[in-house]
Here is the input.
Amino acid sequence: MGALFDRICEALAPKIGESSVAHGVLVLRIAPQALLDVVTRLKEDFRFDLFADVTAIDWLGQEPRFEVVWHFYSTMHRQRVRIKARVGEAEPAVDSLIGMYGSAHFMERECHEMYGIVFAGNPDLRPILLYEGFQGHPLRKDYPKEREQPLVPYRAGYEMPGGE
Amino acid sequence: MNTRTIPIRPESRKSAAFEYISTRKDELIGWARKFSLFPYPFVTACCGMEFMSVSSTPYDTDRFGAALPRFTPRQSDLLMVVGTVTHKQAPVLLKVWEQMCEPKWVLAFGVCATSGGFYNNYATVQGIDRILPVDVYVPGCPPRPEMVIDGIMKLQEKIAGQQHLIVNDRF
Here is the structure.
């Protein structure tokens, strides 16, 4: 396990910032621009053939505000790699991985609706768990915790939750 | 989506004799109806396991004539909302309720359907009574089968004591 991780770090050295091993997972911190290069190398040279997840973390108050996190698994080596990239609030955009992994379509849609991360190159970022017309991104830290956006008018006697 | 079904209105009840007779007719119809509840299970979440438990042999809601789930709202008269209802599901639930023929009753099964439960966030309706009228609330996470049976019996009492809209001076 160590040898594989060392080879990855060595091969990708110019592209990655910090690297560490957390809970048996190799963690690579990269600049968002380097994403496609790094993932291409991981997939083609190191056989990370399974795209497990993409999500984001909202570090409200820090700059850059968001941290996008990808997880990859190699069914050949049985090892996992986690990639992290920071993007700012003004333009929370990273490249889409749909060219390499088909499963990226749905996972990027979910990350987009929950955190507002834009995946450049994904042509279909419609809501997948939420509904059309939902305003804001509910897993951002500044989304009001109890704000509701009902689709059905409430019955008499119940106050309709207002907008923001 | 926002249209409501129009309830059938009783025709005017004129004489005192009619009042007396129709009360007895109400009782008769109530007695018949309370033992022939056809539930439509709108099952969305983990309460569904408890629903299966309460409708199967050890607890056996068939004793109340309420065992045979109809999987179309048009054939059922008791809407059992079992589990959490999200805002995305709310139009679906309302449409199911609107498709049911009168007379119809609604039972909120579990604390999520009753009040949203411990979900208070962007996704969850804080109780289905915000979107449709509820007759019986059965709290619990999930409710014990005994509580559900108690809820059904409460509903039966309610039906037995109801004025039934099909009773008029021609019936």
Summary: Chain A has one domain: 2-120. The domain at 2-120 of chain A is CATH 3.30.460.80 (Beta Polymerase; domain 2). The longest helix of chain A spans residues 35-46. Chain A has a mean pLDDT of 89.
